[in-house]
Amino acid sequence: MARKSKAIDHMVNRMSKVRLVDERAAAPPQSQDDPVEDGKEAAQRQPFRFFDLPYELRLRVYEELLIFPKTIDLDETNYRTIAPALRLFLVDHRMHDEASRVFYGGNTFRVFPIGRYINRKHPLLAWFPRKYRAQLTRLELRLGPGFTKPPKCWVVDSRLGLAAMKKVYKLKVFVELDPASNDVFEGFRAGKNFYTEYCVGLLRGLLAQLPSIDDVEFDAYPSVSKSSPLLRGLLEETKLNQKRVAWGPERGWDEIVEVDLVGVLQKMGLDTF
Asked: Phi and psi for 257 in degrees, rounded to 5?
């Protein structure tokens, strides 16, 4: 029995050596280091010299990465949609300077937060350092949220840092609804003219502290008409401050002429069925 065990061990040992030799024979021969090939690989791995591009091309790249179609505000999705692009700021001082001018100067930032952040004590503008506020060019004032009880933090004061925003030339005013335009809001609004006067006061404060504004762009949801009390009050305040009035793309006021639909139907005899 002992002899058989020794024979088996001897056979296994020999088979292992034969397998090891076969594997070594089957392995492809290792090529000797070629300095020419190593030089080619090193040349291929060299980083792209971004700053060798003309400034116009670099600017185009920044705009593709850092300009966003929607207004920027406090939002729980910012870490996913905006934060990754801001990593450019961390490359070096030169890229930080160029990229920050594009990001802060090319996007629109909301003055007061809405949604889940509507009652935040400090709006987005309050978090910006002074050097970034100085680069802003477009702001948005969104009206309608909180019309039953306007947030206490919606105040035009020093927290916003408006004094540093010398380059802001456009203020976008978006009206979601006008509680004074329909009796359906009766019982929800504080008073028929309260919200209109409140919003006009916000616009007056912004125009007073941002004299660099040239254009005020108005836009709204389809339920808001040009003849609504809130929009009329905002337009009057804009004209009193001698600012140009523009119309945004959402409502399409530039493309259509508003008519009194009820009056037209009455004239056509279609008001009753």
From this structure: -110, 120
